[in-house]
Fold this sequence. Notes:
By secondary structure, this protein is of the alpha/beta class. It has helices spanning 13-33, 83-105, 156-170, 182-194, 208-212, 230-241, 265-269, 286-299, 305-324; strands at 68-74, 110-116, 130-135, 138-143, 148-151, 173-177, 199-201, 220-224, 248-253, 273-277, 345-348, 351-354, 358-363, 366-369.
Amino acid sequence: MTSVRNHRLLLSGNKHFVLGFCLSMLLLACKATAPPPTSEQPTEVRPEKAKTTTVSVKKPEEPAIKPLQLELRLPLTEEGLADHLLFDRLQVLEGFLVGFDSLQRRGLPLKVQVVNTVKVDTLAISTAPLIIEYESEVYRIYLASESRWFESRPPMEMHTAKIARYAKKENAVVLALTKQTELEIRILSALQEQHNGVRVMDKKQPSKAEIKSKLVKGRKNLVYVPTPDENFAIYCLKLLSELKEEFKIEVFGLPNWVNFPTIDPELYAQLPVFVTSSTAVSFNHPNSQRFQELFKSKFAGEPQTAAFIAFDHALYIGERWLEHQKWRLTTFKENSTQLAQDFNFFEVDDQLINRAVRLLEYRDYQFKPIP
């Protein structure tokens, strides 16, 4: 709002006449009392100083930030649910709450409704312009303005694309060891479309000699084992470790290798072992430590990876709203590096796909993101 002071009111016709009469009388009086001019003392006429009027203008107020309205759907409770699964779900909710607190401290008003999907049908009609749904480690986002869902987790094709780029950069020979399961066939097909000349060994128990025949001396050999089966992964790692003195070998596995429960860590340590992952937490990073402090001050407990990922989603959504104040597919097509999960969406057939995949290397007995 603009406020202007000292503006004079408009005069009526009578007031104009009175003002003119007073001015004319004042001029006549000045003329009667003025000394007569002489040749020795010429009359000096000085211009009258212009009168100034001070105008005070208030600075326009910045438009208020529209509240971020969203519905958060997740299975909070379930009869007979194992304790560790319930703990993970609570960590997701708590991570979101810490994220919402952080957004409010940045001046973003929030209107959040939390829905327990165990008790409420997830297909129920919602008036929220944005819905975030969590189920089995998968985050789905619904845009009411576009009437469509999309996932924040990168598809497997983005993982194989990461490996293909790495192989090209390193000029490596690529060998895939598979048991030809349905999942492995799909993953291998994606890699073969993205990288030419992939060598394949599709046997449930390939021998050491058979693997050796596929490797090349004098070059880096990237051995991809796209299996979620821990026993098959262990079998391949043992054979490859016996060939490490003769060949330069790097092993690539699936994201779930990080959570193999029975594998001997020394087996990972014998070879350069990598996995692709859409999530990874650098717990020693200053931003991660700051989140841990906020989490512990609110819930008096240690945050796990699930809480970090939920926090990242809350901040990513809030930052997009702060910048755009509206929801469109293009609103999400911006890179964002977070604590555990990065976001790098692009559009394919009117769908958003996140292609932010990290490469983790096993170092010091844990998988760590490659800088």
